Amino acid sequence: MSSQPPAIIDRQPWLHRVLLLWLDPLFRLGATRPLVDSDIWHLGVQDTAVQLSHRFASHWGTAHDRRPSSLVRAVCRTFAREMTVVAALSVAYSLLVQCQPPLIHLLMTVVTRSDDTIDDDTSGYWYAALLAVVSLVSVTILDSSFFVTAQLATNVKTVVMDLVLSQSLHCPDAATSSGDVITMVAVDSTRLFVGFVALPWLVVPVVTLPLLYTAIGSMMGWQVGVAGGLTLVVVMAGGYYFAHAAGNLRHDLMAAQAARVKATDELLAGIRVVKMYGWEASLENRVTSLRDAELALQHTYQFGSELNAIGLLVAPTLSLMACVVVYVVGLGHALTPTVAFTAMAYVNIARLPCNLFAFAVMRVTEAVTSAHRIETFIRSVLKAILGELELVAGHMEATTTRVAYASQEPWLQQTTIRSNITFHSDNANISDHYATVLSACQLLPDLASFSQGDCTVLGDRGVNLSGGQRARVALARAMYRQDADLVLLDDPLSALDSHVAKTVFEQGIRGVLAEKSVILVLNSHYHLLPFADTIVVIEGGRVVRQGSFATMQQHLTSLSYPQTSKTCPPPTTLADQLLPLASPNPTSTSSHVRTANPLKTRPPVDESSPLLVVAPTSDVALDTYVAYFDASGWHGISVMAGVGGMYLLSQGVVVAADAALTSVTSLCLYVPLAIAAMLLLFTRGICALLLNLACAKTLHRQLLHAVVSAPVPTFFDVTPLGRILHRFTSDLFDVDSRMPTSAVYLLQCQFQVLGIAVVCGAALPCSIVFGAPLVLLVTRIYTRFSHTSPALTRLAAGHRAPFVAFATETLRGLSTIRAFDQTEHFETNGRRLLDKAQSYLLVQFLASRWLQMRMDGLSAGMVAAVAFCCVWSRASVGVVGAGLALTYVTQLSGFLSRAVMGHAEVAEHMTSVERMVEYIGIKSEGAKSEGPVGGSRSTTALAEWPSQGAVTFANYSMRYRAGLELSLKHVSLSVRGGEKVGICGRTGGGKSSLLAALFRTVEAASGRIMIDGVDIATVDLATLRSRLTIIPQDPVVFSGSVRFNLDPTLTTDDAALWHVLRQVHLADVVGLDYDVAEHGANLSGGQRQLLCIARALLRKSKVVVLDEATANIDGDTDRLIQDTLRANFDHDNVTKLVIAHRVHTILDSDRILVLQDGSVVEFDTPAALVAIEDGVFKALAAHAGATLP
C-alpha cells in the first residue's frame, strides 16, 4: 500500500482542489463516452481502509478496557481535525452571509431616493458589487466545507464498515447474525455517512439564527427581535419534539429492518428447497409481514420527521409574521418598504438553514443510533470471543498451532476452483503437490469436464457443483495445506459414494496426509474404521469408548460397517482416474478426456462470470419514474402532475403573501395568505410522505415476488446472493428513506427557483436579459453532469454489491477461515473491495459538489445582475418590485444549486428503483415461449392427483441454461406406483439433475415426464410441487420455532407435529416452540436433517424423493431413520426415489437406477444388476463391501 502512487486529488494545486477543477476532465470524458472502471481514481494512501483503521485504533477501546470509549466519541476524536475545519468554514459562511441584508438595505435606500445623481448611482453600483462579492465568497466557503465533509464522511464510513467486517471475522459463528451484519454494512454505515455529510447544517443555524435576530432587533427594536427569535425557537422546539419522538423509534425500526433482511437472506439461501416444497407463498408472506411491521414503524417515524421538517419550513414565515405584527401593532411604527424587505431579507437567510437543520437533525440522530447499534454489536463480539468455548471441567492441551479443516457442510467461495483449493496461497506456479491433491480427491475427471478446468469460477456457495464435488473441493483445500500439523475432517466422506470415498480415503487421507495427525469424523462409511490408529466413540456429547480397532471391534457391532480388507486397491494410472466409471464407450471417452487439460496455466477472464460488474450508462428512463409512481396504485403520470400542481399552488401563495407585505393596510391580507401558505406546505408534505410509503411497499412486494418466482438455473445459479440482497438492503433503503427526503426537497427548491424567476422577471424586466444566458449555462452544465452522474452512480452501486456479497460469503465460512489462519487475508481482501467501493462513492459525491459549486457561482452572478438592474432602472422600478427582486434573488444561490443537485440526487436514487424494476421484470419460472405457461390443468381437475405415483420419463433431455451441454440425455424409464427405486452413480452423473427435472426447477429441452399419465409440464408449478415431497441433500432450516420449520404454512395441528418429531427421535431434544437459530446454528447437521425428514412425514405424498437424506447422520440414527422411513413409506401406495452414496442403504430397493454422464446405464432389480458381469452397480457394491440382504 505504501508503494501506491498519490491519488489525483492529492496532486492538485490548492485552488484546483477548492474549486474542484480537477474533476473537469472526468466530466468532459463522460460527455464523450461511457465511463469505465479505469476512469475512476483510487483513494489516497491516507484514505485507505488499512491506514484509517490504524488511525482509528488508538481512539477505540479494547475488550479489556473497563470503560471503553463509545464509537461516536472514538470517531469524533479520530477525525477531530477534519471536523474542526468543517466547523470553521461553516462559521465563516454564517458570518459572511449576515452582510447581505445590510447591503440590500443600502440598495433599497438608493432606489427609494427621488433624486437621480451620479453619486447615488456610483454608491448603488458599489453596493451591488459588494453584494455580488459577498454572495460569491460565502457560497464558495460553504462549498469548500462540503468538500472537506465529503472526504470526512467517506472516511468515517470506511472505518465503520472495516470495523464491522474485521470484528465479524473474529466472532464465533453462533454469535453472528448475517442479517444484522449485512444491515450494518449496507444501511447503518450509509446512515453514518449521511449524518456526517449533514454536519455543516448543524453548525450554520446555531451561528446564523442568533446573529440575524440580533440584527433585526437593532434595526426594528429589541422587542421585534425577541418576538421573532422566540417564535422561531418555539416552532423549532415543536418540530424537535416530533423529531425526538420519531427518533425514539430508530432502534425499533433498525431492528425491524434487520429482521426482514435476515428472513430474506434465509429465504434466498434456501430457495431451492423452498421451491421444491412449494413454500414460496408462505415464506413470502413471512417476509412481507416483517416488511409491514417495518413500514408501520417507518410511517410513524417519517410522519414525525415530516412534522419536524414542515415546522422548520414554516418557522421563518411565522417569525416574520411575528416581527411585523409586533413592529406595526405592538410598537405602532409604520412599515416602510425598506424596513419590510430588509427584515424579509434577514428572515430569508434563515429559510435554508431551517430547512436543512431539520434534515441535519434527523440524519445525525439516525447516525448516532446506527453508531450505538454497531457499538453494541462490537461489544457483543468481543464478549463472545472471550468466551467462545467455555471449559466447564477438565483441561485441554494442544501442541499444534497450524490446522487444516474441512467442515461438514462444504464452504466454497465465488472464485475459481483453484483458488478455493489453494485458499489464496501463491498459486502462480502450480506445484506437484497441487496435482497430487487433485488426483487424491478424484477431481481430475470433474475438472476435465469443465471448459475452464480448475479456473472455472464457482457460483454462490459452489452452486454449479454437485454435493459430492463440493465436498471433494473442500477436502482438497484441507489436504493442500502442507504446513498443517493437525487436519480436522468433519465427515467430508458422507457426500461421496462408497467407491469414491474409499479411493479418496486411501489416496488422500492415508496417502497425502499420511505424515499428519488426522481427526476424521464418520457418520457413515464405517468400513474405513479398520484403517484408523485410534477410534473414539461419542454419544450424547461424551466419549464412551476409545481404542484401536482390534480392541474396539467387539464394541462396534452396533455400527453399520461391512468387513473390508486391509488394503484399498489404488487406481492403476492417472489415465484410469480420468476415465469415467465403467464408461459404455471407453475408447471415445478416454480420448476426449486425455485431450482436456484440467489445469489451466493462467486463469482466463470468464466473461459470463456473475462476479463481473456491468454498469449501464444510459440516463434513467422516464419509464422508471412512471413505474415508481405507478406503484402508488394510481397512474404514474397523473400522480406526477398532481404533486407538481400542489407545489405550484403553495409556492404561488407564498409569493403573494410576500408581495402583500408592503404597508399597514396590507397586513390583514399578508397574515391570511401566510397561514394559507403554511397549510398548503403541511398538506403537500403529508401527501408526498404517504405517496412514497405506498410506492415503497408495492415495489418491495413486487420485487420479492419476482425474485422468489425467478428460475433457479438462469437467475439464482448465475446471480450472487450478495447482489440480490443488495436490492433488498441498500436499494430499498434509498427508496424508503432517501428518496422521500430528496424528492420533497427537490420539488420545494424547484418551485422556489420558479418563484424567484417569476418575481425577478415581473419586477425587473431587464433582468430577463441576464436570466436567459443563466438558463442556458445551467442547462449546459447540468447536461454535462447528467451524462456522467448516472454512470458514476451505477459504478458506485456496482462496486458496493461485491463488498456486501463478500461479507455475506465470509460470514458463512468463519470456522474454515479461522482454522486456516486466513483471517488476515480476508481482512486484506475485504479492505481492497472496500477501498474500491469508497473511491467510487467519494468521486460520486464530489461530482455533486462540482455541480453545486458551479450553480452557486452562476447564482452569485445573477445576484449581481439583479442588483445592478435595480440601480440602473431605479427611476422606473417600483420600490416593492425592487425589494422583492433583491430579497428573492439572494436566496437563489441556495435554492438553485440544491434544485439542480436535488434532481441529480433523485436520479441517483432512481437508479436504485431502476435496479429493482429490472429484477421485477424477471421472467418467472414455468413460463415458456410456447406450450402451456406454468401449466394449463386446473387444480380442481387434479384434486386427487397423483393417485398411484407412477413416474415415467419419455426420451427426456434437459440442460440448465441455453448454450450448456445436456445434463440429462434422452432418459427413458418407468417407475411403477408404490415402487422403491434406488438411484446411484458417480458424483456428477446426473442424480441431482433428475430431481431438478422432476420438480421442474429446470424445464425440459425435449421429451416429457409423466406422473400417473399426466404430463407435469401441463401442471401448475405450485400444484405439482405440493404433490411431491423431497428430503434434500443439504438440510435447510429457518430461524424461528420448530413448529414453523416443520410447517411454514402453519396449517398442521400440534398433535401431528409431535407425532413426526417422535418418529424422527427429536421429541426428547426439541419442542415445537424451541427457537432455531439462524441457519440452524444451534442444531447439529444430523438434527437439521432429521427436521427435514420430519417435514416429509407430514406431507403424506404419493411420490417421495430422498436425496442422500441420511448422509450427515451417524450410523445409529441412520438405522433408526431407515426404520422410520420403511415404516412410513415402504408400502404399495407410496413411490420412493432414493439417492444414496452408501450403496447398502438402497440394496432393499425394488429396482436400482444407475446414472452416468446424464444417461441411464443400468436399471433393474438389485439381484439382476449384481449378476451382470463387469456391471457398474456390481462394481459399486463390491467396492462398498455391500451384499444383498
Automatic annotation (TrEMBL):
Keywords: ATP-binding, Membrane, Nucleotide-binding, Repeat, Transmembrane, Transmembrane helix, Transport. Residues 326-565, 951-1182 form the ABC transporter domain. It is a multi-pass membrane protein. It comes from the Eukaryota. The keyword Membrane applies. Residues 85-366, 637-901 form the ABC transmembrane type-1 domain. Residues 585-604 are annotated as: Disordered. The chain crosses the membrane at residues 83-104, 124-142, 192-216, 222-243, 307-329, 669-691, 745-778. Residues 585-594 have a biased composition (Polar residues). GO terms for molecular function: ABC-type transporter activity; ATP binding; ATP hydrolysis activity. GO terms for cellular component: vacuolar membrane. It is found in: Vacuole membrane. Belongs to the ABC transporter superfamily. ABCC family. Conjugate transporter (TC 3.A.1.208) subfamily. This is Uncharacterized protein. It comes from Aphanomyces astaci (Crayfish plague agent). The lineage of its organism: Eukaryota, Sar, Stramenopiles, Oomycota, Saprolegniomycetes.
